Amino acid sequence: MKNKTNVKESLIHGVFLLFGLITVGCVLLITVYLIVAGIPAIHQIGIGDFLFGREWASTAAEPAFGILPFILTSLYGTAGAILLGVPIGFLTAVYLAKVASPKTKAVAMHAVSLLAGIPSVVCGLIGMRVLVPGIRAMFNIPDGASLFAAILVLAVMILPSIINVSVTALEAVPREYEEASLALGATPVETYFRVSVPAAKSGIAAAAVLGVGRAIGEAMAVMMVSGNAANMPSLFESVRFLTSAVASEMSYSSGLQRQALFSIALVLFLFIMLINAVLNLCLKRSKEK
């Protein structure tokens, strides 16, 4: 009987190891492919002109391939979505995990799950038909398709990830921690924010990391509400993100233009890897303290 158990455990360990190696292999293949496909264009254009050029005119008689507007737009858009989405998602998670009644929590969590299942193109369509005209009318500007509209759409789209993961982390905090805090005279609100939240900070930080990944990698929704124009970023002007630059031109690209799009994908990939590495390093240092 013991031998059979050992054989089953070894088999399960082998299956898990195989799946883990497949995942790592896929990441390595993607990395190698992007490097091979993206480096030639960067070498031909020049890394300085490519990364810091302010003009993108890939189909002009004298093409220009500067992606600085795309990089800055992605940075500003992601930062704005995180600044809006993380506090709202975090506070919502605290309410659902610690304050809301079971019935309210069940209804809210179903709504959050439904929001997570809405395709990005639907979010973009709603934003284009409702949000963009609303911004145009509210701020009296020629066109509501702008960086501001993209930030609002991204903030809504990252909420499900932040709320779900944060609620799970908060519910995993041992009840004894909160009972001890309440016994010492702390109020429920003080207990939630000074005991439960610090105990669940690693899970909440992981939720923020997921939100960052979702905001950076979104393409279709931001392309529909941002105007998709290769301008330097301004809050109420049409802009183009790194992701939407690739998505909007890949279908008809060729030659150096197509290679430059792969170079943009490489920059985006390295950008995401860098952000994840920095956030994971911060989490690791926080755990050590």
From TrEMBL:
Record carries keyword Cell inner membrane:
no
Q: Name one GO molecular function term.
A: phosphate transmembrane transporter activity
Q: Which residues form the ABC transmembrane type-1 domain?
A: 71-279
Primary localization:
membrane
- State the membrane topology: Multi-pass membrane protein
One Gene Ontology term, aspect cellular component: plasma membrane
The record, for InterPro entries, names: MetI-like, MetI-like_sf, Phosphate_PstC, Phosphate_Transport_Permease
For this UniProt record, the keywords arranged alphabetically read as follows: Cell membrane, Membrane, Phosphate transport, Transmembrane, Transmembrane helix, Transport
Q: Which GO terms describe its biological process?
A: phosphate ion transport
The entry's localization annotation reads: Cell membrane
Report which residue ranges the record marks as coiled coil. Answer: none
Respond yes or no to whether keyword Transmembrane helix is given for this record.
yes
List, alphabetically, the NCBIfam families matched: phosphate_pstC (TIGR02138)
Function description: Part of the binding-protein-dependent transport system for phosphate; probably responsible for the translocation of the substrate across the membrane.
- The name of this protein is Phosphate transport system permease protein
Q: Which organism is it from?
A: Candidatus Avidehalobacter gallistercoris
